[in-house]
User: What shape does this take?
Amino acid sequence: MTVIHKRKQSALAEFSRSEKRGLYKAIYKRRDVRGHFLPDSIPDRLLRKLLDSAHHAGSVGFMQPWSFIVIRNEQIKKQVKELFDQANADAARVFEGHRRELYSRLKLEGILEAPVNLCVTCDPSRNGPHVLGRNTIRETDIYSTCCAIQNLWLAARGEGVGVGWVSIFEPAQLRSLLHIPERVVPVAYLCLGYVREFLPRPELEIAGWLPRLALEDLIFFDRWGQKNGS
Assistant: This one.
């Protein structure tokens, strides 16, 4: 019985050992790329492949709330960079002393360097007001869009393409610049491109901004704060 059960599990898994190693490699070596982009263009076929990976994410009620604005126009990039610079100056002022000094040294975007910028949006009204599974937690459409972003990010890492998430904007200004309808939420502004290197650890960890938390401190059992056996 045990042998038969293991064979069934193996058949259902479908992934070979090498495929599983590749999947975990993409997860652990994924990086938020900020300033290491090369000018080489991303082939249209590969970009579509990455977008298709995003489009195959799971979504609440299968509503597929995402849309993708592909930005290659240099003038639009410059305007987006101006929005970033304004918001970044404001963000720097919330920190003091050494923290502000460290913040000022961080490279937090690659808007002009990356050959492709990508704005990923969420339309909460897609497929009508009533979405299966979203009645009590309205934000699940945003969560679904984040799953699509992670799909794209991992696929890009597997293809040797770097991705950087730029979150220092005033959303209303970005919406106006990109002509995004009022009902639609700009969830992520991403920079995509081939890179000089993928760092061995997250850049903010290397810079000393924050350490990685210990997984054991983040796991509870049955209820918040309860450790196994306590």
Observations:
- The CA atoms of residues 57 and 147 lie 6 Å apart.
- The two ends are 36 Å apart (CA to CA).
